[in-house]
Amino acid sequence: MNDSSRRTFLRGAGLLGAGAAVSALPALGAPAASATFGHHGPDAEDGRFTLAVLPDTQYLFDADRGDPAPLDATLRYVTGGDENIVFLAHLGDLTENGQPGEFDQISRSFQHLDRHRFPYSTLAGNHDIESSTDDQRGRTPYLDAFGPQRQRGSRTFRGASPDGYNSHHVFRAGGREWLLLALDWRPSAGGLEWARSVLARNPRLPAILTIHELVWADEAGQAQFSEFGQKVWDELIAGNDQIFLTLNGHFWPPGRAVKQNKAGHDVHLHITNYQDRYYGGSAMIRLYRFDLARNVIDVRTFSPWLADQAPRLNELQRQEIERTGPADYFSLEVDFESRFAGFAPVPVPPARPAERQLIRGTVAYWRFEGREGAPVAGVRDLSGRGNDLVRVTLPGSAPEALRFSGEFSGRQPSRSSLRFDGGKKPARGGYLRTADSAPMNAETFARGYTVEAYVKLPADFKDGKHAWAAIFGRQGDGGKAGKTGDDPGEPSATLSLSDGAAFQWAVFPVNQNGISTCWSHELALQEWIHVAAVNDGRRTTLYVDGCPVLRNPKTPATGIANPGGSWLIGAYAYDSIVEQAFHGWLGDVRVVGRALDPREFMLG
In angstroms, rounded to a whole number, what is the distance separating the alpha carbons of residues 601 and 557? Predict the structure, then answer.
């Protein structure tokens, strides 16, 4: 459920105190009032998307004592558009007795998805068929209503087993394709072999397994395999690394577990079922909200039918709007790239030619290409403007304190970096500086500038030995440039990192006597980050990964005061004396004599 919808029904429910009098619900057989959820379709390229999961609805379709209204409300919600729901999976036990009349009713409800051409899967539970049979049982009312013929118009359906009871879908979400297996009540050996063949035919797709029976949970929500579930694990899941998530119903209460497969990777095992709760579970829906950028799946469970009626609900009904216990409301951390690397590794894009980075106004462009682990002697300026770099080693430091590295950001143009192993008290490490004859040493950038770089900080950066380590700046201080405000001993320009690993761009501008600073938020360690300081001739904006940060000053700041010193890569100098070298990795660095639009950054 999206935040606005959630606020709507919780606000309505909040108007009722405990024991307050409420108006009656509409007649239970009547359709519930539906919230307006919009009408746009799912975005298959958005890195944030939702998989909807619908467990046992059997009590809603139980001969002459059921009610389709809760399910109708849930299916309207799914197609409403507020959530970026890309697929719906039913976990079986659609009906209580598996009778034709029951399937006629639930079939009419699912026609809402058919009319919207919304992709979904179903599977037979033990109440939908004769529970003593497997998928070789032949024709049944379930197969008549929800067999492969129903999916002819589906854009995700990719086929079924010869018996028709097992199916698979491929849906697109987050810019990639995902495989979903929908397996029958206790599939036969042939059914499991069919599932293995589907995985083999789609070897690069991450897979979600839906099945009616797999795990059950105790009252604490800890899931474990049923006897048949253990068989499915042994014969299908454990040996197929593609399966990272399993979903089943059948048992209650809900619960979850994590088990490692034969590749040593986590498989998340979830049971979700609410038929034992008020109104047969009120057609509760489980929402798996994938966020590929955050490497998280946020899981929420609620009843759209009850949510629609929130202002009119009594105490019991209000408690059933949303399930918020740890088995129903939680987040999974999944490093998708790492988890899928064994079968779908992300291809490393090739290096981009250096000449493509020489955009209008480029003053200097340095990329650090050399043999892995080799000490650095110097680096050529690829702009052709002669701003070459020479190495400086601080006293007592080994050549290996500044060396070439095979580490790199996949977004940067080159495929290598520099590894700095610097520190302070005493100053140690190595750094680079522009040669004495470098034209850049005379620059003041009065018409604007952009300084951008790729940075990765190691896990020990915050150990107290690296605060204010700089990745770029000038050796000369403000005093040498004629500045008397603030602390004239500070560099005339420096892009440094605080002890909390936040960027600070600090300069003595040409038009100010004091320092102008920009601050970022605290940065993640062990991750590549792109940083850019952009000045348009009047104001400076600091960007992290192409996004402007909050603490950018509005005070005009033109250019950078020139104290007559060299530019430094990987060192901080106070009173023109280098106090420490950088600690971490530094990828491509580019300086441009104008303000770049973020779309011009070397972000790949």
Answer: 22
